[in-house]
Specification:
heterodimer; A: alpha/beta; eight-stranded mixed beta sheet; four-stranded antiparallel beta sheet; 16 helices; B: alpha+beta; Fumarate Reductase Iron-sulfur Protein, Chain B, domain 2; 2 domains; two-stranded antiparallel ribbon; 9 helices; 14% strand
Chain lengths: 590, 234
């Protein structure tokens, strides 16, 4: 064996956020030796920042609500490249997954009947778009992510999951058959490098919003799972699809939940006009996030932005009254007062579209098995490798995620992955052991970093990367701009690979972690850039000035980025529903 | 220029901790303490601290800021600078791993001790367990805890007995489950707390209330637990 210690588990989950802890819970309950590797203590994961809620047809607000309506909304929201089989599974299984969380103690807000409180969110409808606005997002005030994450951590404590807290996974270990047999990871506190061997390796590593300069995402959202996957030579899917949340606080980037608009808040321009009435006459401020974000940018570009530089718009809440705001949106009051110096009870919040969510990720099937595409264009399961949550692309969000669907995605598919792995473990998993050379291969990047003697600072290179992504791959995109951006990323690569690591100590060395995170950011940025340039149409969150229309003839499909050749391929969208006929693509209006 | 004084200790290099002084140009802006640390780290990459959400909900960056425990990401300089000086130390009372990073093992162990999860062994219904808005309101001010440890590491009773006194954070969570209409383990929970140390080492100093970045009130929760313990004994 390579010169490092080996730890062995039945299942290893990389990432201690919502999907990782839901998968871990399932496996720990079944008695399999399960470990969660997480670079921060689990309740510090980014799920904690989710605010408005978790969308699911539990028929509380409307006793006649149907999961099929939620399915329709999600497919429409995805601009028709969400996999319908996966969306059907999520919407149908959702209520069961929500009730489980409630039984575990999640402190949902309540209705007078004692049921879970549901609020309206964007893109929600009754009766397949014909019955008006629905209220389908289950909420714990505006701290739903916090409540959910803590409940899942508590459930894992109860079931005695092993946590490798403040450990950082560096790279995937593959065996001779190209199957995944664990990861190399660093114990951040001691600096020890360990081969964590596993029969099933689940990536629940979250998103990578930190590729952009302005993001609602936590510092830790650096796409580590995507970086490792690409370095291992496996593909990612729909990675050009980045959601810009309409309401990030101007300047700070912190999120202001869509639930504000769900509760009756609305956006205004410098003239005080409720401009969404012009862009989405029916749904207005509760249109899809891509639609609202673009409308805001157009208002700003056409000179109707607010503030001295006219570079943002306002979110108005004061008309809802102090009592409602205190009861329904207490966290937002706190955030706005702290970061915008604006008290929403009296004045509007300055907001601007801000990078929020990665719709793309590691392609998987409904069981969480990671996929690659063979030479004939067929899906091929990667043995030993699974993904769920934001890191995965199963794909339930397609080109645009609906608000409240990310929390549902992570509990439903974290659970599904756990259940499937449990079944596989019961049936027996036999993967070849990694050779010494296989483990060495997974350590090569780390070894190179540890040996670095010159090179530039990680912090400088990170700013450069984020600026390129912000300027060339933002809300509106154009071919010639993107080609320029790709060139700049190409120039950045050797500099990032040669990044300096001045601090070589082993004790809680966050410089080393940040340098590794930077390398992951670069992988995600490059995959995003090349794929965005290749998709010559506008769909969902991907809006091109030079290809303004959706092109179903050529692009009603997933993009697949193959890292070895840096090639963009296509993969069919699933249009097979178990319970009814598929939803055919329609023109998407709100 | 702002004078910033930061506690430094790298066990591999330093025989003992020391305070390092930095000069920082705020450009006249009232930025957050975390912004200062992030900027200083670009100049001195060996400076170590925890951070994640940068919006006061993950609880990573609890530290002692000019003498008061708080979260660096939501503490503006205007609240932290005294006579043009900002002093940043790790949270007090727990072992330091490096610089501003403490070993939170004892803090987490106390949290785990109170069985921080719902206990209800009756068969679960097919939908959610019903709970009235009034019952649910009893959890407000309790469930919002972010486990940042600002309160427990500000508590002299916790400094003295970190192994035996649950501390304000753990007790706030203990009461969160005692107060939940869906939890049925009240007796068991109270029995686990019924000793001279777990709860009764709280002397009502209320440092916890003063420092909680989420505006929560552990002392009040501890008062409720005391009453429950006293009532259950009679």
């Amino acid at each position: 064996m390579a010169n490092i210690r080996t730890m062995s588990f039945d299942a290893v989950i990389v990432g201690g956020g919502g999907s990782g802890m839901r998968a871990a819970l399932q496996l720990a309950q079944s008695g399999y030796k399960t470990a969660v590797i997480t670079k921060v203590f689990p309740t510090r994961s980014h799920t904690v920042s989710a605010q408005g809620g978790i969308t699911c047809a539990i028929a509380s607000d409307d006793p006649n609500d149907q999961w099929q309506w939620h399915m329709y909304d999600t497919i429409k929201g995805s601009d028709y490249i969400g996999d319908q089989e996966a969306i059907e599974y999520m919407c149908q299984t959702g209520p069961e997954a929500i009730f489980e969380l409630e039984h575990m103690g999640l402190p949902f807000s309540r209705t007078e009947e004692g049921r879970i409180y549901q609020r309206p969110f964007g893109g929600q409808s009754k009766d397949f778009g014909k019955g008006g606005q629905a209220a389908r997002t289950c909420a714990a005030a505006d701290r739903t992510g916090h409540a959910l994450l803590h409940t899942l951590y508590q459930g894992n404590l109860k079931n005695e999951t092993t946590f490798l807290n403040e450990w950082f996974a560096v790279d995937i270990v593959k065996n001779a058959d190209n199957a995944v047999v664990g990861v190399v990871a660093i114990n951040i506190e001691t600096g020890e490098t360990v081969y964590v061997k596993s029969k099933a390796t689940v990536f629940a590593t979250g998103g990578a919003g930190r590729i952009y300069a302005s993001t609602t995402n936590a510092h830790i959202c650096t796409g580590d799972g995507i970086g490792m996957t690409l370095r291992a030579g496996f593909p990612v899917q729909d990675i050009e699809m980045w959601q810009f949340h309409p309401t990030g606080i101007h300047g700070a980037g912190t999120l202001v939940t869509e639930g504000c608009r769900g509760e009756g808040g609305y956006l205004i321009n410098k003239d005080g006009e409720r401009f969404m009435e012009r862009y989405a006459p029916n749904a207005k401020d509760l249109a899809g996030r891509d639609v609202v974000a673009r409308s805001m940018v157009l208002e700003i570009l056409e000179g109707r932005g607010c503030g001295p530089d006219g570079d943002h718009v306002y979110l108005k809440l004061d008309h809802l009254g102090e009592e409602t705001l205190n009861a329904k949106l207490p966290g937002i009051l706190e955030l706005s007062r702290t970061f915008a110096h604006a008290d929403p009870v009296k004045e509007p919040i300055p907001v601007v579209p801000t990078c929020h969510y990665m719709m793309g990720g590691i392609p998987t099937n409904v069981d969480g098995q990671a996929l690659t595409i063979d030479g004939d264009g067929n899906d091929q399961v990667i043995e030993g490798f699974y993904a769920c949550g934001e890191a995965a692309c199963v794909s339930v969000h397609g080109a645009n995620r609906l608000g409240g669907n990310s929390l549902l995605d992570l509990v439903v598919f974290g659970r599904a992955s756990g259940m499937f792995i449990e079944k596989q473990l019961r049936e027996g998993i036999n993967l070849k052991d990694a050779s010494e050379a296989d483990i060495e291969a997974a350590m090569s990047g780390l070894n190179r970093l540890n040996a670095s003697s010159d090179g530039e600072k990680a912090s400088d290179l990170r700013v450069e990367l984020q600026t390129i992504m912000q300027n060339y791959f933002g809300v509106f995109r154009r071919g010639d701009f993107m080609q320029e951006g790709i060139k700049k990323l190409e120039e950045l690569r050797p500099r990032v690979e040669n990044v300096a690591l001045d601090d070589k100590s082993n004790a809680f060395n966050t410089s080393r972690i940040e340098a590794l995170e930077l390398q992951n950011l670069l992988e995600v940025a490059e995959a995003t850039a090349i794929t965005a340039e290749a998709r010559t149409e506008s769909r969902g969150a991907h809006a091109r000035d030079d290809f303004k229309e959706r092109d179903d003839e050529n692009w009603l499909c997933h993009s697949v980025f193959f890292p070895v050749e840096k090639r963009v391929g296509k993969r069919g969208v699933n249009f097979t529903l178990k319970t009814r006929e598929a939803f055919e693509p329609q023109i998407r209006t709100y | 220029m702002l004078n910033v004084s930061i506690y430094r200790y790298n066990p591999e290099v330093d025989a003992e901790p020391y305070m390092q002084d930095f000069q920082f140009d705020t450009q006249g802006k009232d930025i957050m303490v975390l912004d200062v640390l992030e900027k200083l780290k670009t100049e001195d990459p060996t400076l170590v601290f925890r951070r994640s959400c940068r919006e006061g909900v993950c609880g990573s960056d609890g530290m002692n800021i000019s003498g008061k425990n708080g979260l660096a990401c939501v503490t503006p300089l205007s609240e932290a600078v005294v006579k043009n000086k900002l002093v940043i130390r790790p949270l007090p009372g727990l072992p330091v791993i490096r610089d501003l990073v403490i070993d939170m093992g004892q803090f987490y162990a106390q949290y785990e001790k109170i069985q921080p999860y719902m206990i209800n062994n009756s068969p679960a219904p097919a939908i959610e367990r019903l709970q009235s808005p009034e019952e649910r309101a009893k959890l407000d001010g309790l469930y919002e805890c972010i486990l940042c440890a600002c309160c427990s590491t500000a508590c002299p009773s916790f400094w003295w007995n970190p192994d035996k006194f649950i501390g304000p954070s753990g007790l706030l969570q203990a009461y969160r489950f005692l107060a939940d209409s869906r939890d049925t383990a009240t007796e068991e929970r109270l029995a686990n707390l019924d000793d001279p140390f777990s709860v009764f080492r709280c002397h009502g100093i209320m440092n916890c209330v003063q420092v909680c970045p989420k505006g929560l009130n552990p002392t009040k929760a501890i008062g409720h637990i005391r009453n429950m313990l006293i009532n259950s004994a009679t």
